[in-house]
Specification:
It is built from two helices and no strands. It is mainly alpha-helical. The protein has a domain at 6-35: Helix Hairpins, CATH 1.10.287. It comes from Brevibacillus nitrificans.
Amino acid sequence: MKYLSDQMLIEVYHRAVDLQLDSAFIELLRSELDHREIRIAQVSA
């Protein structure tokens, strides 16, 4: 995850939710967003 820019991480998160990927993967992305203190609007799954 450390190789992703903040913008790329946000894009990957939104894309993962849109594609309804594995919930564990989405949670991993959310954890990284929290770790970086990036706040984004919740996306309904």
